[in-house]
Write a structure and sequence with these properties.
Elements (H helix, E strand, L loop, with lengths): L24 H12 L1 H8 L2 H4 L4 H10 L1 H19 L6
Helix pairs in contact: 1-4, 1-5, 4-5
């Protein structure tokens, strides 16, 4: 299945990952923190909510109020989950 694009990757339920079907922002953020950690998220996305006393609660507050930041976080989640499902290394 290495010929599949990241946009075609499906989760365990058969839903396209890029559609974020049934995935809320809290789940996305917790997945990324577990996968990368706060310092790596800050290095990749350059947001103060990941650098200055990061917590899930404060980051969620920022991401819910800032559409461009939420979009960046969702895009990283889609890339990371797609790579995981397809058996490739995380981007």
């Amino acid at each position: 299945m290495s010929f599949l694009r990241a946009a075609d990757a499906r989760d365990e339920s058969g839903h396209l990952i890029r559609e974020l079907h049934g995935v809320n922002l809290t789940t996305i953020l917790e997945y990324l923190v577990a996968a990368y950690g706060w310092p790596e998220l800050d290095a990749r996305l350059r947001m103060n909510c990941f650098a200055d006393s990061p917590s899930v609660k404060s980051s969620l507050t920022f991401l819910r109020r800032t559409p461009w930041a939420r979009t960046k976080v969702e895009e990283l989640y889609i890339k990371a989950r797609s790579a995981e499902v397809q058996g490739r290394p995380r981007p």
